[in-house]
Amino acid sequence: MPIVRNKKIEVLYSAEQLAARNRELAEQIALSDLKNILVISILKGSFVFAADLIRALHEAGLSPDVEFITVSSYGAGTTSGTLQLVRDVDTDVNGRDILLIDDILESGNTLKFTKELMESRGANKVAVVTLLDKSMRRKTKIDADYVGFECPDKFVVGYGMDAGYAFRELPFVGVVTGDA
Ligand code: IMP
Ligand code: MG
Q: Could you tell me whether strands 3-4 and 7-13 are parallel, antiparallel, or unpaired per DSSP bridges?
């Protein structure tokens, strides 16, 4: 079991599994009816997944435009569902086919807020891809069009996802199980 920062980390999805799934997702997306895709990576958690997925999209024959948006819940740990747009995209999304990328779909508040924002600006289509789906935690009606893996009801870290800014650099998705 990997040990990082003196913590034991159980690997849920290895680097190899993530890479293989990214290739499959990219092939599915390449077969969709999305045209001239504008990828929007929701920061911060999705930055590693997005970096790998856009390269898999290239391998699948696509040439997306790539943008970033930062959305955050008001107050850490709140479940109010109130979202704040911290940093907007620079691109005019009117008429565009958008692929929204997030790390985890949990309550659904983040992706619902961001999807509706893009729709309100006149996006032609908004498709959603999430690496992990905690479907048992959903509080609002939104589903991803593409899901990497179902996620157990555990707090996961790695592959861009953090616990208090730590563990984003791990090349796998894991769960902290205790002290080493
Ligand atoms: P929601 O769907 O709006 O509830 O929030 C999903 C967001 O919460 C994700 O984009 C993550 O940034 C964060 N999040 C949810 N579960 C976890 C976890 O297990 N580890 C790290 N971040 C998480
Ligand atoms: Mg996030």
A: antiparallel
Q: What is the CATH number of the domain that holds 46?
A: 3.40.50.2020
Q: Is residue 125 part of a domain?
A: yes
List, for residues 104-129, the tens digit of each pLDDT value. 999 999 999 999 999 999 999 999 99
Would you say the CB of residue 156 lies under 6 angstroms from ligand 1? Answer: yes
Question: Is 128 a member of any domain?
Answer: yes
Residue 27 sits in which domain range?
Answer: 17-151
Both tokens of residue 176? 């902290």
Domain-located, residue 168: no
Number of domains observed in the structure of the chain: 1
Four-point Cα dihedral 40, 153, 21, 45, nearest 10: 30
pLDDT per position as a tens digit, 19-54: 999 999 999 999 999 999 999 999 999 999 999 999
State the Cα–Cα distance between residues 20 and 6, nearest whole angstrom: 29
Indicate whether this model's pTM tops 0.90: yes
With a 6 Å cutoff on the Cβ, whether 109 touches ligand 1 is yes
Q: How far is the CA of 3 from the centre of ligand 2 (A)?
A: 24
